[in-house]
């Protein structure tokens, strides 16, 4: 008789939730460990040891993604409002709208009222705004794999967006390709835990924590970059590496889930039909070819990985300003396309410190990086136009 899933080492589980969805007996739930990361827990009184949970585990050998040379673009949405309210160029909105226009549904990560993050399903343009923007924390997929399958079986078009491991988990759960399914993965660096983020928001917002109404890790009011905001009922607070230990350590790559440092997917190929990310470091000559595009509002890089991706991308091209480019140019500032994030020396110390002493460990370590804060502050004072000129010279 087959056994049930058992995680022996933290790096063996990415928390995608495929095992939870696959269990017909609902014997598996996601439980929080000491650092706030979620792992499957099996209720043996309900489990029949069918092994389905092990079959869909994406950290077992499940096969590769798309390894063929993708079509690569630099692109931005022609709708300036969508571009401004998106993290980069607004490409996700264009793809999602193409699915909604066919009466389909779109799945992605959205903030709940308590400022936790979970995947939800939206079925109209108004709700689509909930899915825009980068969220630098792990989203729980919950029951959305099951919801997506039900819609696919009914013949509806579905767009499912997420990290590469979430898309791999969805595909493993579905067990077959659906022509009416569009998958969109993001260029992912790694994810901290929701517990870590909640602790940080309490630190940043203080007594106004309970009044938080929105978190933006990338707020275009400060330009295209990694500077965000926390909105409360009374004020809008700056949220970046200069105000938040969590944000600082996220950008350094020190506080990710253990599986992120052992991610299979950069080496095995893209999991989504289309991959989206920021076209960091885009050269001035490429920007000029895009015509009336303000680079300070963000430009996306797009990898169209297969024939299905090509078909969907063609349907939203009219909404975009785009030019062809190459993967090598994108990879220069998006290393996670080719390799997993590497834990730096401070990672284990921070993790164990957080488990022992809570958020005080982050605050204590953060204060030791005064030099880094000063350098980042000076860099933030440099106008983006000057940064692009420097990049062009270095290129």
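-> sequence recovered:
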């Amino acid at each position: 008789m087959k056994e049930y899933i058992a995680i022996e080492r933290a790096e063996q589980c990415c928390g995608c939730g495929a095992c939870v969805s696959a269990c017909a007996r609902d014997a598996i739930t996601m439980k929080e460990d000491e650092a706030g990361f979620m792992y499957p827990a099996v209720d043996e009184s309900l489990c029949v040891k069918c092994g389905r949970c092990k079959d869909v585990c994406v950290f077992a050998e499940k096969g590769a993604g798309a390894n063929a040379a993708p079509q690569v673009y630099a692109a931005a949405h022609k709708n300036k409002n969508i571009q401004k309210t998106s993290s980069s160029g607004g490409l996700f909105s264009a793809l999602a709208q193409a699915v909604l226009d066919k009466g389909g549904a779109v799945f992605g990560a959205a903030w709940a009222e308590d400022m936790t993050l979970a995947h939800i399903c939206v079925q109209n343009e108004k709700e689509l705004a909930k899915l825009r923007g980068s969220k630098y924390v792990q989203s729980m997929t919950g029951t959305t794999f099951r919801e997506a399958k039900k819609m696919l079986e009914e013949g509806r078009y579905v767009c499912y967006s997420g990290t590469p491991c979430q898309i791999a988990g969805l595909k493993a759960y579905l067990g077959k390709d659906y022509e009416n399914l569009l998958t969109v993965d993001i260029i992912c660096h790694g994810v901290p835990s929701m517990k870590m983020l909640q602790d940080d928001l309490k630190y940043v917002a203080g007594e106004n924590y309970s009044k938080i109404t929105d978190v933006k890790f990338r707020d275009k009011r400060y330009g295209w970059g990694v500077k965000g905001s926390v909105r409360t009922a009374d004020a809008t607070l700056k949220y970046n590496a200069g105000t938040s230990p969590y944000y600082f350590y996220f950008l350094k790559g020190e506080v990710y889930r253990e599986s992120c440092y052992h991610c299979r997917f950069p080496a095995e190929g893209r999991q989504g039909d289309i991959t989206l990310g920021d076209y960091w470091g885009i050269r001035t000559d490429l920007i000029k070819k895009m015509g009336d595009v303000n680079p300070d509002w963000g430009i996306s890089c797009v990898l169209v990985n297969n024939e299905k991706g090509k078909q969907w991308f063609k349907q939203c091209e009219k909404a975009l300003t785009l030019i062809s480019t190459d993967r090598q140019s994108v990879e220069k500032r998006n290393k996670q396309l080719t390799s997993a994030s590497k834990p730096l020396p401070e990672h284990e110390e921070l993790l164990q410190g957080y488990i022992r002493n809570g958020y005080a460990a982050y605050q204590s370590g953060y204060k030791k990086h005064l030099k880094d804060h000063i350098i980042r502050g000076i860099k933030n004072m440099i106008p983006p136009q000057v940064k692009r000129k420097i990049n062009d010279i270095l290129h």
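Residues 62-370 form one domain.
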